[in-house]
Amino acid sequence: RSLDLTGPLLLGGVPTLPESFPIRSRHFVGCMRHLHIDQRPVDMGTFIANNGTLPGRAQRARLGARL
Questions:
Q1: How many Å apart are CA 47 and CA 26, to the nearest integer?
Q2: N or C: which terminus of the chain carries fewer CB neighbours within 10 A?
């Protein structure tokens, strides 16, 4: 399978979009790490915009997650 991206890639959260844009969820709760696109690592510290995401593992302790 391949992914046709004609716009920006959004990870973790999305900005305010028109109501006609069909999305199922606006939020992600969890941890993303070791992201690779086309076998190349992506540095998530270098982003163009931040739409409410938080760095680090602040949610881990609150949710009791074990990674």
A1: 19
A2: N
Token pair of 20 as six digits? 């006609």
3-state secondary structure (DSSP) of residue 67: coil
Residues in the chain: 67
- Output phi, psi for 38, to 5 deg: 55, 45
| Tens-level pLDDT at each residue, the chain (67 residues) | 566 677 777 776 677 777 777 777 766 777 778 888 889 898 877 776 666 666 665 544 444 444 4
For residue 36, what are the β-bridge partners? 41
